[in-house]
From TrEMBL:
This is Retrovirus-related Pol polyprotein from transposon TNT 1-94. It comes from the Eukaryota. InterPro entries: DNA/RNA_pol_sf, RVT_2. Pfam families: RVT_2. It comes from Araneus ventricosus (Orbweaver spider). Residues 4-243 form the Reverse transcriptase Ty1/copia-type domain. PANTHER family: GAG-POL-RELATED RETROTRANSPOSON, PEPTIDE SYNTHASE GLIP-LIKE, PUTATIVE (AFU_ORTHOLOGUE AFUA_3G12920)-RELATED. GO terms for biological process: DNA biosynthetic process.
Length: 480
């Protein structure tokens, strides 16, 4: 902190109040649980800051998981070299615009009673993430990178084919030009204190680079933590995460508060968001009853964990593919929720063999027919498809318009034409967004058989054979 000139000692102005601080200690671990290093942060008590006095704007973006997976898919296809870095004490590099005063922290007292006027941001300040983000953005642009229009935490250099993704102080560089990567890392080390290493563990995601250029994405270490945390390490495994027909209007007893229902859902949701699209539907359904879960819901959670026990080696694989087509699948059940009778939308987007984006979401309105339910699901998927198409275009993949694959001919005709006006005029105008995008040739819609509808795995419980087939279809491989 002294080397970085983080503060200067001053006499406190009479019209200002100092904020406090405390030391926070943390152990950073590797994917296998071993200690990587010990960390100590001086954290300001930012809760005592006042808006308009010592802070204004606080928003700071972070990279989307969809962006991370998409960049990894492109890296696998183009056989790019991956390098990972971590900026040490990143928030101390942010330049403050406001005057902030702080008591001298423990271990720095000089005994003369002066306070600290902060010249750089520190952890705990409300604006600290924002000013660090702006600081790194300025540095990246000086190095010849430009900010992506699709994700503000993705930086690109088209001439040298450098892709840089940043999540606060952690980042990954992907490039085919090793000399360009080396030059960038030299500039990075001269500007910040960084730790540089092989890309194998990023934000809880394990990344394995194969000799042929393929990339595996999984969270095997995190599965084991879940099994140990919830005392299910010795449980028997099952082949599916939810049994067909178990989503019912059960009237079993409510769970006592001592049962860690919410904690378990949070852990499983992180898996479903990062690397396990196959459990998204079940986790989404169970997260809807966080206020009053019942015994049947707890039994379903334990079944998901038993399923994870048997699929620890289930991974997403990205690999080389000559045909650069973004595969988009969208589907919906009809009135599947037994209480609200709302339908569930499912969508998945695949790039170079693996899933890069997916969603299982209960619709916000009641559909009056299967056609209407699938039309609503397609409109929701269209927004994500267009965004992913733009992202892949920025990553210099061959630009093609996204093609949504649906298994309902009536819904497809509803997208392409203004049919069934008397029976569909009540549909909210926001769901007709997809029709406009089709007419302006921003996307296309085609028919696929129900047998090959990959998004079906996100809409309802399936029998074992059907579930395993779709799991493979969405690019997941079980090596257990």
């Amino acid at each position: 902190m002294e080397a970085n000139n983080t503060w200067e000692l001053v006499n406190l102005p009479q019209d200002r109040k100092e904020i406090g601080s405390r030391w926070v200690y943390k152990i950073k671990k590797n994917a296998d649980g071993t200690v990587q290093r010990f960390k100590a942060h001086l954290v300001a008590k930012g809760y005592s800051q006042k808006v308009g006095v010592d802070f204004n704007e606080t928003f700071s973006s972070v990279v989307r998981w969809d962006t991370i997976r998409t960049v990894l898919s492109v890296a696998a296809n183009k056989k790019l070299r991956l390098v990972q870095f971590d900026v040490k004490t990143a928030f101390l590099y942010g330049d403050l615009q406001e005057d902030i005063y702080m008591y001298q922290p423990q271990g720095f007292e000089d005994g003369i009673g002066q306070g600290c006027k902060l010249l750089k941001s520190i952890y705990g300040l409300k604006q600290a993430p924002r000013v660090w983000n702006e600081r790194f953005k300025s540095f990246a642009m000086k190095c010849g990178l430009k900010q992506s229009n699709s994700d503000t935490c993705l930086f690109l250099n088209d001439e040298k084919s450098i892709y840089l993704i940043v999540y606060v102080d952690d980042g990954i560089i992907a490039s085919v030009d090793e000399q360009a990567v080396k030059q960038f890392l030299e500039k990075l080390k001269s500007e910040f204190s960084v730790v540089i290493g092989v890309t194998n563990y990023f934000l809880g995601m394990q990344i394995e680079c194969l000799e042929d250029g393929g990339i595996f994405v999984h969270q095997e270490g995190y599965y084991r933590k879940i099994l140990k945390r919830f005392e299910m390490s010795e449980c028997n495994s099952v082949s599916t995460h939810v049994e067909k027909g178990t989503i019912t209007t059960d009237h079993s007893e409510f769970l006592p508060a001592t049962v860690p229902y919410r904690e378990t859902i949070g852990s499983l949701m992180f898996l479903a968001i990062v690397s396990r699209p196959d459990i998204s539907y079940a986790v989404g359904v169970l997260s809807q009853v966080l206020d009053k879960p019942q015994q049947v819901h707890w039994s379903m959670i334990k079944r998901i964990i038993r399923y994870l026990k048997g699929t620890e080696k289930c991974e997403i694989l990205f690999q080389y593919d000559e045909v650069n087509t973004l595969q988009c699948f969208t589907d919906s059940d009809y009135a599947g929720d037994p209480l609200s009778r709302r339908s569930t939308s499912g969508m998945i987007f695949m790039s170079y063999g693996g899933a890069v984006s997916w969603r299982s979401q209960r619709q916000s309105c009641i559909a009056l027919s299967t056609t209407e339910a699938k039309f609503i699901a397609a409109s929701q998927a269209a927004k994500e498809a267009i965004w992913l198409g733009n992202l892949l275009s920025e990553l210099r993949c061959v630009p093609t318009i996204p093609v949504l694959q649906m298994d309902n001919q009536s819904a497809i005709r509803l997208v392409k034409n203004r049919e069934f006006r008397s029976r569909t005029k009540h549909i909210d105008i926001r769901y007709k967004f997809i029709r406009e995008q089709y007419q302006t040739k921003q996307l296309d819609v085609v028919y696929c058989s129900s047998e090959m509808q990959a998004a079906d795995i996100f809409t309802k419980p399936l029998v074992k054979d059907r579930f395993l087939k779709l799991r493979k279809l969405i690019g997941m491989h079980n090596f257990g």
